[in-house]
Amino acid sequence: MKLSFKSIDNPINVAIFVVTIVVIGIIALRFLPVEMFPEIEIPVVTVVIAYDGASPIEVEYQINKEVEEELKGLTDVKKVTSIASQGMGTIVVEFRSGTNLDTKRFDVKEAVDNAIPDMPKEIETPIVRAVDFEQIPVMDVLLYGEGKNYVELKEVAERVKEAANNYLTSPNYLIAKLMPEKSAEL
Predict the structure, then answer these.
(1) Tens digit of each residue's pLDDT (9 = 90 or more) over 64-90
(2) Residue 100 maps to which CATH number?
(3) Could you give the CA distance from residue 180 to residue 154 in angstroms, rounded to a whole number?
(4) What is the per-residue DSSP string for 157-175?
(5) What contacts 144, CB < 8 A, 6 or more positions away?
(6) Between the chain's N and C termini, which has fewer beta carbons within 10 Å?
(7) Residue 24 · residue 52 · CB < 8 Å
(8) What is the DSSP letter of 104?
(9) Are 55 and 128 in the same domain?
(10) Are residues 124 and 166 located together in one domain of the fold?
(11) 48 and 25 in one domain?
(12) In this structure, are 49 and 107 located in the same domain?
């Protein structure tokens, strides 16, 4: 209550305070970097292990748990997420920010290699990758045409791709591609 009464009694001081805050905000805004696609660095490593024909429960106990046990020895781990699905185990390891992702990817690879002898022999070679957020698409467009054949849909997709590539002229901002890139069969 005292602050509001003092503000009413001294309107010039309040006006000067407000103008000062606005000026500081305008000056700070001029030095704030603005990027269309800012670089995002979140240190994340994924491990994917295929185990054909295995149920999610088998994958969880025979694959994911073994890898998780080996990952316990790593430092700077923020969070470990494990997903067991039909015939495949996925482990996502998120590290604290500022962590050297190359060395951590190597450490995760070593941990996975240490866990392999305790896993079933039928597993495929584990894939250990560092996640690059610049390679993740911002938008996917799916084309569907009832009664249309592949060639007609591909022509429409080519026009959409061309329009998208012409929208922004810099190749750093937009990359459009067709997936799957099948050729028309005769």
Answers:
(1) 999 999 998 888 899 999 999 998 999
(2) 3.30.70.1430
(3) 10
(4) HHHHHHHHHHHS--TTT--
(5) 153
(6) C
(7) no
(8) H
(9) yes
(10) no
(11) no
(12) yes
% of the chain surpassing 70 pLDDT: 84
* Cβ atoms < 10 Å from Cβ of 132: 11
* In-domain check, residue 38: no
The Cα 78–Cα 74 span in angstroms is 10
- Whether 174 and 185 map to the same domain: the answer is yes
Q: How many domains does the chain have?
A: 3
Q: What are the residue ranges of helices labelled H in the chain?
A: 2-9, 11-30, 56-59, 65-71, 101-115, 150-167
Please tell me the pTM assigned to this model: 0.59
Rounded to whole angstroms, what are the CA distances from 86 to 43, 51, 56, 82, 92? 27, 8, 5, 13, 17
Sheet of strand 88-95, all strands in order from the earlier edge strand to the far edge: 77-85, 88-95, 44-50, 127-130
| 129 lies in the same domain as 141 | no
pLDDT in tens, 86-107: 989 999 999 998 888 889 999 9
Determine how many CB atoms are found less than 10 A away from the CB of residue 126: 20
Four-residue CA torsion sign, 158, 160, 166, 169: negative
Query: What does the buried/exposed string (b/e) look like for 58-90 if buried means 16 or more CB atoms within 10 Å of the residue's CB?
Result: bbbebbbebbbebbeebeebeebebebeebbbb
131 in the same domain as 144: no
